[in-house]
């Protein structure tokens, strides 16, 4: 099975190389291999069996990945939980997947004194009993696990509704990793600082670089200062983050005094890269940039634009393209009837290949809704250019239809963000008796900025039907941990 093979191969090839680092400790590939095997035996001794679901509630730390790999070795499914969710939300996920155990940090587990009836095991990472798991256990024969067996239930970021449980198998992780590694061609000396949480599809990026033998540095939550310090301390060659994190890092005072010269590549995804952030980062960091376009339902990252294809900051007039689909996966833009549209024409992006999910956990109806003749419907509107690069335009659910004309909120947001006083922006549709729906803009701006300033700016850059009907100032645009705007919190 892929995850087990990954660890065994790296133990064989790089036994003394550091595999994982967090703020408490580090482990070599040999240590990681031995601990995951030991932990699998210990979890089996607790009664966890093949096919059981085990929820993990923790900030990023080595024990999280040790648990994921141990459960995969055992044939059980790991179910990462977003630790920022409210008590009823966590309980709802545990109940829906029927988790038999919850493992995690004691401080987070303490927030949930009562768990659904399916849970019979509750254990914290930071207690001696967890460290001892497997060390005193009798030898247990672990099952033969195939790449078609489900290995995880990963929950979507839920920007428009309740998070869905995406069931993936080891074959999905393998297909994405091998396709990505062919495209990215990483060297075996990579040290990657992972700024993204390990509880949703973004973790596949870390798994992919681990497959190449890289060292991955984990942080218990992102702060600009923590990320900057991690790069300097570990002489990191790569970083994986969302654009908003990069903005905060560049704004931090410490960015000017931190040695970032080891960086060779910044990987970013989950949201468009603001052009001002890109221009500043290119100047300040002097490294390459790699865009990551992915979706949990299709296995994670399936499209990339490498450093050699990124434009110079002065050559960017609109959004940077996402890139080309990785080998092994297929993508196209289609119309409402599912027919592929010509190059340059906007359609909905659909994907197929061995990386796609088995389906939503116990929800065949929702699975059918996103499946079209074997393709997964992403919900993203975009087009393919003549060189095979995918360009995203907007989310289909966010599209505003004003008197029959398509208005893309991301285009308005992009124009607003070019105003020097604007720090962030989000655009949603609002009902209108005459036109059906019109744009409403929410803006985070410097003190003293007026709506007249911004209306004048959009008038110079947008056709009349695209201009916001109203602009409201807010203190912060709501975003989820992946950096995506949570527009359901803004809609009127």
Automatic annotation (TrEMBL):
Domain of life of the native organism: Bacteria
Assigned keywords, A-Z: Ligase
Domain AMP-dependent synthetase/ligase: 8-361
Gene Ontology molecular function: CoA-ligase activity
One Pfam family it belongs to: AMP-binding
InterPro entries in alphabetical order: AMP-bd_C (IPR025110), AMP-bd_C_sf (IPR045851), AMP-dep_synth/lig_dom (IPR000873), ANL_N_sf (IPR042099)
Limits of the AMP-binding enzyme C-terminal domain: 411-484
UniProt keyword Ligase, yes or no: yes
Family, similarity comment: Belongs to the ATP-dependent AMP-binding enzyme family.
Name of the molecule in the record: Long-chain-fatty-acid-CoA ligase
Organism: Streptomyces gancidicus BKS 13-15
